[in-house]
Structure formats: structure tokens, C-alpha cells
Amino acid sequence: MIIFNGSASADLAWEVSRKTNLELGKREIKRFPDNEIYVKIQSYVKHEECYVIQSTRSSDDFMELLLLLDALRENKASRVHAIVPYLMYMRQDKQFTEGESVSAKTILKLLNESADSITTVNCHFIDSGEGDFNYHGIVFNNIDAFPEVGLYFKGKLTDPLLIAPDNGSLGRVRKVADLMDCKFNHLKKKRISGDTVEVEAKNLGVSGKDVLILDDIISTGGTIIKAVELIRKEDPKSVNVGCVHGLFLNGVEPFVNALDRVACTNTLPTPASKISVAEAIAKTIRKR
Ligand code: R5P
Prior knowledge:
The protein is α/β, with parallel strands linked by helices. About 30% of the residues lie in helices and about 30% in strands. The protein contains 8 helices and 17 strands. It has helices at about 10-20, 60-75, 105-115, 145-155, 170-180, 220-230, 255-260, 280-285; strands at about 1-5, 25, 25-30, 35-40, 50-55, 80-85, 115-120, 130-135, 140-145, 160-165, 185, 190-195, 195-200, 210-220, 240-245, 260-265, 275. A hairpin with a 5-residue loop joins β3 and β4. It binds ribose-5-phosphate (R5P). Ribose-5-phosphate binds near residues 168, 215 and 217. Ribose-5-phosphate binds near residues 219 and 223.
């Protein structure tokens, strides 16, 4: 078995190869003058089972992933597995209004064509749970990193209260509250546009508490910043934020300045990536 990494997940793939004792395969990735991506597999992969680890923050990351998977098949790898710690385009998993594309289906269909198995971490449209999920006939494996996020904060907060930013996150937050043996509550969120949200709260009971807001993704940061503003009004002891995928489109600094602690996993490498999903990915590989 050999692990390959795309350019978006180099450190994480290295960590996984150390944990699994598997070789990190050699490959060349470069750009043509017009910016098209060139991929060449340099390790001998004939009859080998291969894993490609590549998060997809951009369409180019996704293209690179498809080219790597395809190149492995061209070079006669026995099976090729896609491990996509952050899988983009998962927010649009159905038509919310008539005429819309269903991007989650498009992306998963393409991956399903190119790989013998698909693994991701906290796929956005799965509120809670891990293992195999069937989405429109495409089976993929979902790793739940929320327990790792909970464990990171467990010893750091003395009187924790967990907050879900919306109803959609309640399942995950309930699970982490069990693990941290504490209570939880939730806000009400209404998305006005891609970068504007309205957040409402009533009697959160956060006064004197170490509040931990948990979300799967921080993208623009609008959701969290609004939540923090509301919570601060109720005089908490501390306000902390944990998430799995830190896109931080406006940088990490606004969070570091506004919060007592902010931590996310390394599905996407950021200055706040203090929690590693390498062991969870290694476990998935060992199971095969
Ligand atoms: C939405 O359903 C997600 O769980 C996150 O709350 C959302 O993606 C965060 O986006 P932003 O950081 O742009 O508010």
C-alpha cells in the first residue's frame, strides 16, 4: 500500500504515512504556462493499493485530486482510494429552490468515477455520525472529528457549556456535550446571503460559563462573529470556538482577538489547526 498526497495536504499525508508505516509515494505536480495542472506518478504502483490524501479548498485542488487518482489507474494501481479531509461543495446537497445545481451530487459522482472508495471528514450535510453513507447510490465513508475537537477542549475549560450555532449542528454538539459531560444549548441562525447571517438567542444560560461554540465549518466567520457578539452580552467567563474545517476566508486574527481560544483540525492547514485528524484517517486505512 502506498499513500500519495496532493499539494493541499502534504503535512497531513506525511503524518498519516508515519502512523500507518506506509510509504509516501513520489509524484510530480506542476503547472503548464496556461495554469493547467500536470501530474506524474514517479513511484512504481503496478498492482499496489494506493491512497490519495487531498483536501479541496479550491477547484484546482479538486482537479489535482482527480488527476492523481486517474494517473494511478493509468499506471495500473490495483485499487485507488480518495481520502478528502475537506470535501468542498457539500453545502448544496439538494435543490433548495427550483433550477439550482446540486453540487454535492456532481462532486461525489465525479469522485465515485475516479476512485474505488471515498473517505471524507465531517461531510457538511451529515449532522452526526460516522461510517458508510449512501447518497444517491454513492457510498462514501464519513469520519467524525468532533470527538477529537471535544477532547482538545475537555481539560482546558473548567465549567463548559456548549453552543450550537444553528439547529443543523445540534446532533454533533449533543454528542460532544456527552463526551465532555456538560450541557448544551443552541442559537437560531437565518442565512441572508453567502456572507450575511442573522443569529438570534434567548436565555442561553451562559453567564459565568466557559462557552464553547462548535461548528463544522468556519468560512467567512460571519456565523461565529455574530454568535460571539450575542453570547458576550450575557457575561460568560470565557468564549471559545472549535470547528473541524477552518477556511478562515478573512484570516484567523479576528478570531484570535475576539476569543479566549480558537482551535480547528488540520483538514485544512491554518494557524489555528491544533487538532490532528491523522490518527482517525490512519484508523480508516488500517481497517481496509
Ligand atoms: C452552515 O451550515 C455551516 O455549518 C457553517 O455554520 C457555515 O458554513 C459557516 O459559514 P460562515 O463562517 O461564512 O458564517
